[in-house]
Design goal:
alpha/beta; eight-stranded parallel β-barrel; 39% helix; globular
């Protein structure tokens, strides 16, 4: 088997079928990479860059393409090394290595199809019979009656865990809202958690996402984050995600020392080298690598191993489309320190039509995929149904560039 072509497929479709998430984001873009061979087999992978700036992906894929032409998938780590070295000056972290992630995932998908094995078996073998999952719920939709309905919706889908954003989103009122002073923020979040716990009880996993790498309002400093954590300690959070910006690694390490709440983060980090700095500083109790963004499935495994060596767990980050979801599920099953899997609930066609029955959840737990490769498809029907819309990537709104959907 030889590789004869490498192609980028850009798509745009509904972000979700979730009525609550839809208040924040109505459509999504996605970037897939197809590796074509001289057989009937095609490898498929996704890069999370396609959710943000999909127009950038084809040119980067074409840069790496000559390295793969004529090659087999006998040694994926060597092919990754060649691509990484060719772009070493500009793809050690960030966009370049994240696009490389999608290419490498397609190589693993292809190798799995050739060998008749799920990808997790190629990454070191399955470590679990099943893994707990949580519904990634996006914003805290307000008023509180709507927040209760949102929680009920996710529990009705079978989830035993839910993650909600700090602050609130009230589309009929003040829109995105976050109090200004640290004590007001702490009081607001504590009142929210008291309401949530009273509504769902003590047996449901609850997580809060500060979104401080990507905040729609004001970004917290260490003192603010500390005040919030102290206020939330009575409410048994599984973890608090991204309470600080990633420019404050020392702040993350200090916050972990100041609170009993497990601090999670890492979805914005790329490459095992960048991760090593945060891991060496003990910035996270729970690391959140993304197998469509971190730099490759191999890089994901390296990051998980670094965290495990320091006694830390991982919780996959997975907010891309269907390829991203399955890449993270396979990596989660291959790592010995996986705490929980992030799952986009009530997902739309760029998930459901791509993962088909490969994603299976029973009683709030994900079962290991059984199909060879990643278990995803990218048919002509899907490509024609979800044509790419330029400018459909998500960004942080600023004057002159306001996200409207």
């Amino acid at each position: 088997m030889k590789i004869i072509d490498v192609r980028t497929v850009l798509l745009t479709g509904p972000c979700t079928n979730d009525p609550f998430l839809s208040e924040a984001r109505k459509r999504r873009s996605a970037a897939f990479i197809e590796i074509i061979t001289d057989t009937e087999l095609v490898g498929i992978g996704e890069t999370y860059i396609g959710y943000f700036i999909p127009e950038s992906v084809p040119g980067i894929v074409d840069f790496f393409k000559p390295i793969l032409l004529g090659q087999s998938v006998d040694n994926i780590s060597e092919l990754w090394r060649r691509m990484y070295h060719a772009g070493n000056f500009w793809c050690r972290v960030g966009m370049g290595i994240s696009v490389l992630n999608g290419i490498e995932a397609a190589l693993w998908d292809l190798k799995g199809k050739m060998s008749g094995l799920p990808v997790y078996e190629l990454l070191g073998g399955r470590k679990y019979d099943r893994l707990p999952a949580y519904a990634t719920g996006g914003p805290s939709n307000y008023p509180l009656g709507k927040l209760a309905a949102k929680l009920d919706h996710y529990l009705s889908l079978g989830f035993k865990g839910v993650k909600l954003g700090a602050g609130s989103l009230d589309v009929a009122g003040e829109g995105w809202y976050m109090p200004q002073s640290k004590m007001a923020i702490a009081e607001f979040e504590a009142a929210k958690l008291a309401f949530i716990r009273s509504h769902v009880g003590k047996d449901i996993h609850i997580m809060i996402d500060g979104h401080m790498g990507n905040s729609p309002t004001n970004t917290w400093d260490l003192d603010t984050a500390t005040a919030v954590m102290k206020a939330l300690e009575p409410y048994d959070l599984l973890f608090f995600e991204e309470p600080l910006h990633y420019t404050d690694a020392e702040g993350y390490a200090e916050l972990c020392r100041r609170t009993t709440i497990p601090i999670a983060g890492g979805e914005c980090l790329t490459g095992s080298g960048e991760w090593k700095m945060f891991t060496d500083l003990s910035c996270f109790d729970v690391g959140q690598p993304d197998a469509a963004f971190t730099g490759g499935l191999g890089e994901f495994i390296k990051v998980a191993a670094m965290l495990e060596a320091n006694g830390k767990q991982i919780a996959t980050h997975a907010w891309g489309a269907g390829g991203c979801l399955m890449q993270n599920i396979h990596c989660g099953f291959a790592c010995g320190n996986t705490l929980i899997l992030e799952i986009p609930p009530d997902y739309a066609g760029l998930h459901s039509e791509i993962v088909r029955d490969s994603f299976r959840m029973v009683n709030g737990e994900v079962l290991p995929p059984e199909l060879p490769g990643l278990g995803i498809v990218l048919s002509d029907k899907i490509k024609n149904k979800y044509p790419f819309v330029p400018g459909s990537g998500e960004f942080n709104s600023v004057p002159g560039k306001i996200l409207t959907d």
